[in-house]
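Entry for the shared binder. Reason: the reviewer on the internal report wants the predicted structure included alongside the sequence.
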Amino acid sequence: MSAPSQRDPFDPDSFEVVLVSPRNPLNIGASARAMANFGFTRLTVVAPYEKHWREARSAVQAEGLLQNAKYAERLADAVADCALVVGTATLTHRKPEQPVVALPDLPKPLHRAIQSGGRVALVFGPEKRGLTREDLSCCHLLAVIPTHAAQPSMNLGQAVAVCLYELAKTEPPPLKSTKTRKKPDSGSLDLLAGVIDKVMLAADYSPASMHQANRHDVRLLLRRLELTEPDARRALGFFRRVERKLAGLHNPSRSKS
């Protein structure tokens, strides 16, 4: 089926489609084809189940896109340079921990992030279970495809196509004469979260059984705060100073060095 040609919906260098642990190479190929249909060019595949996923025959007329796709071992690495990360999920069996945006409303925050000088990522989980709670801790927002309650899950390739169609059909807002303040990328937030974690450990903030939950909650908190890039740098410097002071209390010889 052919359709009228479209202009690129987003700057190709600013938008990333990320597939997390896909099991079926055919679904990866179908996702690549959907990307090509709607003018998206950057694909990252995180820890795929099959090693030969680049050979998927379903990537009809999108073979080059599939061959040029990036590979990552972890979702955090795949989105480290993105200022806005949007996860996709169904809410049938989960309570969201981040703001939920309806699919028709998704283009607005994506365009806003790109206009402020950031990169964005749209993340899809594996076919059987979707994105895990840990995966979603990397996400600023959660986009939900409205499906029927009797069959809430979608094929991966279909889900990618539906989301990208929604983005491609939306006219981008006019460019602003002045950019909004740039947001820190996901890697910077994870760096800050790591230092905060060290401070909590040094301060004996909670029992060991709570450490993993605390790390998860801090990752989410930093994304909900919508810090600017200067805010994140200032917070990083502050917590690094606190970490050094606490380390000096536990090791006086270090504080004198």
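Summary line for the report: Strands lie at 15-20, 43-46, 70-72, 84-88, 100-102, 120-124, 141-144.
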